[in-house]
């Protein structure tokens, strides 16, 4: 078969069943070329997917998807799987609104069994499906595909502990590239790197097959053929290289895990360096504080690249800890540090902080410990899966006793809030910040005393309506207020800053000042800040007509901030339209 035509003939996994090993190797080369060509133009998880080409081919060669489903952990490494299931035509739409998802998703194909983007879930799902088959007397296997970094997740280890004793029709495909997103860490990583994996899995009662060269498709087909035979849980341990076959990934495996559009030859970004993100502002203040206070230390679970803390980890390695993809442990680790006199800072992407919710309640807030939590990517989080959006953080964290929640509107407020919290810690404090570049500093607040940053900022007063805004909606809200004022409406603007505990007396006075109020938040409305202000008005018997603007109870699709704020009416025109719909006399 002509090498250049193999991929073009693939419409479903059935199309590779009759290919011999030589053809499968040609197909792997062709897929790598296709991925580099398309993803260099769209951006995407290039390094993660170049490392799983042969693994994906072998899985679809041996197993009968979707009847023998492959459960992809996290799902970002499923690009070859998408190609083998007939989605080559979707790749040009990657990272565009309504286009192909970066992750496996049930909305695209019957071969994508679950929605995934949080790590560590595949073993539990696969075991549940395998047990259902065992109950029915069926022996068709279910495959859990998981990376070595994700296997350290507490949920994954719980599932492994269970699966190893169930004798259900299940196969564990372990993609061991020595990385999570950041370089691998911990005892499991060391065991896999130093030949102790067999002893570990066999001690649990598993059938261990490996280690197998994860880029030798013939060896992988042989291993999976053996693994699908009935018996205890089979573990196929494949050693792979992140970014395999692409030279730039060898020197930048973390950066090339995911990339924006890039030059294939050099790996450099096509658009140059991205603008300064919010987390870099916070990190700069943390570094200043660490220079003079040896009690300050930093923790982040595996996403160091997204926190701005990498220079701090390099400068003070003895005070910095990345335990890997272990969100629950990382949170309670800070509890121990705080109890023994340290001043810990823990940084999460907002979506991953959900995984440590119980620890925040039970371990941090209940003991009222001086821990600074940084929540990155609060609000809309771009083109990652819908589950990556940080649009639930206000609703699920606001009810917690002892927690202080701050949301700055610009770089100055962010830096000042971090610095003040580190100087004068008082219980657990969460500072949220949005995805994307930091907004310019507002000179109007540059001379405010630190204490003022926990009080509402009255940007301008208004006799007709007061617009209350949360940090990441400030610019759109300000533009909407200017639009109202141009129509003759005396509209005021308030930057809330502290979302919990709400400064109720100050806010009550502002609610009294105008007969109408608008709240704007890039978060779900149920349980959000708008609901809190409406409740405050009711409790204080303030006669004010409150319009809450935010996100309905839904899962938002992937998209840029501009696309999603427009979709949900959170851009300036959308806000103005919602206000005009509520009070038609202002529409003219």
TrEMBL record:
Q: Name one Pfam family in it.
A: Transket_pyr
Q: Which cofactor does it need?
A: Mg(2+); thiamine diphosphate
- Write down the Gene3D superfamilies for this protein, in alphabetical order: 3.40.50.920, 3.40.50.970
What does the record give under GO molecular function? Answer: 1-deoxy-D-xylulose-5-phosphate synthase activity; metal ion binding
Name all Transketolase-like pyrimidine-binding domain ranges.
276-440
Q: Is Repeat one of the keywords UniProt gives this record?
A: no
InterPro entries in the cross-refs: Dxylulose-5-P_synthase, THDP-binding, Transketo_C/PFOR_II, Transketolase-like_Pyr-bd, Transketolase_C, Transketolase_CS
The biological pathway it contributes to is: Metabolic intermediate biosynthesis; 1-deoxy-D-xylulose 5-phosphate biosynthesis; 1-deoxy-D-xylulose 5-phosphate from D-glyceraldehyde 3-phosphate and pyruvate: step 1/1
EC number(s) per entry: 2.2.1.7
Which keywords belong to this entry?
Answer: Isoprene biosynthesis, Magnesium, Metal-binding, Thiamine biosynthesis, Thiamine pyrophosphate, Transferase
Quote the SUPFAM superfamilies the UniProt record gives.
Thiamin diphosphate-binding fold (THDP-binding) (SSF52518), TK C-terminal domain-like (SSF52922)
What biological-process GO terms show up in the record? isopentenyl diphosphate biosynthetic process, methylerythritol 4-phosphate pathway; terpenoid biosynthetic process; thiamine biosynthetic process
Gene Ontology cellular-component terms listed: cytosol
As for family, the record states: Belongs to the transketolase family. DXPS subfamily.
Protein name per its UniProtKB record: 1-deoxy-D-xylulose-5-phosphate synthase
